[in-house]
Specification:
CATH topology of the largest domain: Rossmann fold
Shape: elongated
Radius of gyration: 25 Å
CATH class of the largest domain: Alpha Beta
Strand content: 25-35%
CATH superfamily of the largest domain: P-loop containing nucleotide triphosphate hydrolases
Helix content: 25-40%
Oligomer: single chain
Distance between the termini: 47 Å
Number of strands: 14
Length: 321
Amino acid sequence: MKPVISISGLTKTYAGGFAALKKVDLEIQQGEIFALLGPNGAGKTTLINIVCGIVTPSSGTVVADGHDIVRDYRSARFKIGLVPQELTTDAFETVWATVTFSRGLFGRAPNPAHIEKVLRELSLWDKRKTRIMNLSGGMKRRVMIAKALSHEPEILFLDEPTAGVDVELRRDMWALVRRLREGGVTIILTTHYIDEAEEMADRIGIISKGELIVVEEKAKLMQKLGKRQLTLNLQEPMAALPPALADWPLALKANGNQLQYTFDAHAVAPGDKPQDIPSLLRRLGELQIGFKDLSTSQSSLEEIFVSLVTDRAEPASKGAA
């Protein structure tokens, strides 16, 4: 399948010499939800703004649904909707007027039925005659989303769309994202709420210091890099780990009342000796170490993200020292 967005060798260096993006290559398939994660200043917004034609790249190419974003800007931009981080809209206009005007900017013929549909989906219909200045911050965010959807884009960028908004808007927002994806719209989002990316995204991209360090399907990323933990609540506290358990990466927790075993989620197939759970439990039985119950947990996408960014930052820090 031909990608709906193709980014090749993309760089952005500002006048002061700061390299915001460093040879980014990325393909995004039609109809997928792609989450771009990274710390502040990593290059997420710069990447989005280049694809949307707001920032000019220093080098490289971006093609949106077959249209080069520099040579064929108007056709490329027609395909794209953008919800920026900043709440920028005409404070004196009504909700209906500003959303309708946004549709007209893209050369779309008037379609009151579509505008009504968008406003209803975002719980803005009752506010359609209200001036933007009189709306709450959450309602203004809804208006920004409505503007981005006004011209029926096939590609939608959401740059921190739920930052600082209420729980109700977050719920409505992600319900809308699911409906749009079902209709064939490609969604690219950045978010600081990593649990949202974990729940919503098909694929995850992690960017750090202008470099795209990982692009992977969410499930595969968590399988490759995720960790599992087995926690045993002991019947009797232990002062120290016995030498007979040295083959397992174990740690005593909760003042010796818990035994914690951390292992790779993808490396626990039967026959993995000696660091597999059945052999550990057998050894505990041989040593007459009893436990009341056990529980398992898997590392979250947030923990994977922090680990990846930290691993890349450490060599640079050591080299600078």
